[in-house]
Amino acid sequence: AAAPVTVTVTGAAGQIGYALLFRIASGAMLGPEVPVKLNLLEVPQAVHAAEGTVLELLDCAFELVAGIDVYDNPAHAFDGASLALLVGAKPRGPGMERADLLAANGGIFSVQGRAINDGAADDIKVVVVGNPANTNALITAAHAPDIPASRFTALTRLDHDRAVAQLAARTGTGVSAVRKLAIWGNHSATQYPDISHATVDGRPATELVEQDWIRDEFIPRVAKRGAEVIAVRGGSSAASAANAALEHMRLWVQGTPEGDWTSMAVPSDGSYGVPEGVVSSFPVTTSGGSYKIVPGLEISDFSRSRIDASVTELQEERDGVRALGLI
Ligand code: NAI
Fold it and tell me: To test ligand 1's pocket by mutation, which of 85, 131, 188 has the most ligand atoms within 8 angstroms of CB?
């Protein structure tokens, strides 16, 4: 049998954690051949609740689970980790200023970055889910100087999947007909869901939908879908976020299918005019455990202005955490 892969999940007692852990344990992320050792990290006051989730994980008798431990110490939780899903974060409380939020999360992600630097396996892959996800990934990477920054990514696959679903519904096709959709920029309301290069059943998506629909309905609907879910469900996206985080990691490890790509927020290499180091979403292909920003795409004036607006927001977030001494 293959050696177990150590997977660290933070925020294990939260609602995304609850939707995520059982699927990882069932093999949905790494496949039916790969045993997993689950390291769960929580804040001390939520360790007990995480232990409750562990009781249920054990009660599933998942054959692929090689062990489960709950920690409140990041140094222990990331020891030997090959995959880390950083879900736990500090939500914005009532009356909390933006700088307070950045500072609170900066405290969390700088400590976790250091623990990853010191203890994680050489092949560590990190996805940050906790918001502000892109900037939290930037902070984490900054505190792990011995690990290539490219291993620190943030989740925009949920936005990608939301966009795929909307385009499929609009064109009356199944989601599997949609290829080459891209999310650019920040996981926030400024994000740019881009169908300029997308195809539906092999036909250019831009020939199947109106520009007005793209601008006035599609883009805002995808960008504000999180708020729509809260308004209707009475709680924030959890199972869909967990599914997307799992897909982000699955594709990074197993590779994107031929003729398609995914969206990931990754440290920019300067591609498409996004300043180097800014953690921005791009269309990427993955293979052999690494990813590559899709090169050479033609960017229209409309796309350019949308990408620039979101990247400007990311630069402001970066300036904010720099001013706080967090990077
Ligand atoms: P939740 O509040 O239900 O759970 C968060 C958990 O994280 C709590 O159990 C909390 O104790 C834990 N936590 C806080 N600080 C921690 C630390 N330093 N170490 C370990 N655990 C810690 O929240 P939920 O719904 O699970 O969401 C988690 C995060 O994911 C939020 O920041 C949310 O905004 C974000 N999110 C991101 C999405 C994306 O697409 N990037 C989509 C949906 C949510």
Answer: 131
Across the chain, which distance is largest between two alpha carbons, in Å?
55
pLDDT at 97: 81
Residue 271 lies in a domain: yes
Residue among 235, 267, 309 at smallest CA distance from 128: 267
- Phi, psi torsion values for 203, nearest 5 degrees: -100, 145
Structural domains in the chain (count)? 2
CA 90–ligand 1 middle distance (angstroms)? 7
Burial bucket for residue 313 (CB in 10 Å: 0-12, 13-18, 19+): buried
pLDDT (tens digit, 9 = 90+) per residue, 210-233?
A: 999 999 999 999 999 999 999 999
The DSSP H or E segment spanning 179 is strand 178-179
Tokens of 214: 């793209």
Report the pLDDT averaged over residues 283-287: 98
Residue 163: domain span = 157-317
Range list of H helices, the chain: 15-26, 47-59, 74-77, 98-119, 133-142, 157-171, 211-213, 219-223, 225-233, 239-254, 301-323
> Is residue 8 within 8 Å of 39, Cβ to Cβ?
yes
Closest Cα to atom 34 of ligand 1: 131
Whether 322 is in a domain gets the answer no
Structure tokens at 314: 């990311």
191 has binding-site annotation = no
